[in-house]
Every structure is written in structure tokens, then in C-alpha cells.
Design a protein that fits this description.
two-stranded parallel sheet; 4 strands; 6 helices; two-stranded antiparallel sheet; mainly alpha
């Protein structure tokens, strides 16, 4: 286990201000030291935005292994992996909490427009294995077919402008 015992809440801001020197930096998937170095082009909001968009598209599906802290074959959506197992446990606890308060627990899968396009083409979603585990464990309402029919008539009725 990493970060055990956890740092005291009073020290969180101090650690964040010097995160590159923190022992936790090597375990933080989304932290890349080069992202926090001041560059000359940061003076231009347009250039910075353009480079962020290009970089995000290029590395959107970057995978990193926690075992050796290298780019690798780590799959956050693997139901057998640590992130998948943690997600399932969090949702199970949430379900227990909901039902303890006398409410009915329901999960509805609302895919994004890009995911609907994949479904329409018969392609698999990146998180399909985890979604299948959710189906088996909790039961999931799947309105994808109805959503596909709706967007075939008028896609603006389901998604905000810019989301498509």
C-alpha cells in the first residue's frame, strides 16, 4: 500500500506545492513533471491551448504500469485489476448505503456520443469488460438502442452542442 499512513490534512497543501519532490509523485498516474515547467509559449493562451489539445489527443489513452512506473499495458477498466476492483467495491458500498436508506439502487449506462458511434458500428467499448461485470453484479439499465434511434432522427435532442 502506498501513502500509509496518510499524510495529515494540515500537510496536504505543503505536499501539493512541492509535489515533484514528494514520494507520491512516482505513483500518480496523471502527474508528469514536464507539465509543470514554465515554458515561453505559456505566455500565449492560444498556443498553450493548441498544444494542450494536440498533446491530449496524442496521449489520451496513455497507459502506465504502477509496478514499474513505465508506459505499459495497464488497463484501468480491467475488472480483475486494482482500479476495476476498487470501482466495484465503491459501487457495492454505495448500493448498500442506498438500500439501507430504503431506496432502490439503479445504474443506468448513458454513453457519450462517441461511444454511441462505436456501438452503432458494432465495435467494443474500452470499458466493456467492466460494464459486463457491473451487469452481472448490480444489473444495469441499457438505453443505448433507444438513444441510437433518437440520434438517428435528431442528435441535438440528446447532446449539448460541442459534446458531439
Amino acid at each position: 500500500m502506498v501513502n500509509s499512513p496518510a499524510i495529515p490534512p494540515t500537510d496536504v497543501m505543503k505536499v501539493l506545492k512541492n509535489f515533484d519532490r514528494s514520494d507520491m509523485a512516482e505513483y500518480e498516474y496523471f502527474y508528469r513533471k514536464p507539465d509543470y515547467v514554465k515554458r515561453i509559449w505559456h505566455n500565449s493562451k492560444f498556443i498553450t491551448l493548441f498544444l494542450d489539445i494536440v498533446y491530449d489527443e496524442q496521449f489520451r489513452y496513455r497507459k502506465k504500469s504502477y509496478k514499474n512506473n513505465e508506459i505499459g499495458s495497464y488497463n484501468f477498466f480491467d475488472p480483475e485489476g486494482e482500479p476495476g476492483q476498487l470501482t466495484l467495491k465503491i459501487v457495492a458500498q454505495f448500493k448498500k448505503d442506498v438500500e439501507a436508506h430504503g431506496a432502490k439502487f439503479i445504474i443506468v449506462h448513458f454513453p457519450w456520443f462517441s461511444q454511441l458511434k462505436l456501438i452503432a458500428k458494432g465495435r467494443e467499448l474500452r470499458y466493456s469488460e467492466l460494464l459486463e461485470e457491473f451487469d452481472k453484479t448490480f444489473g444495469v439499465v441499457h438505453p443505448e438502442e433507444e438513444m441510437l434511434r433518437a440520434i438517428s432522427k435528431d442528435s441535438s435532442s440528446l447532446f449539448l452542442p460541442g459534446i458531439m
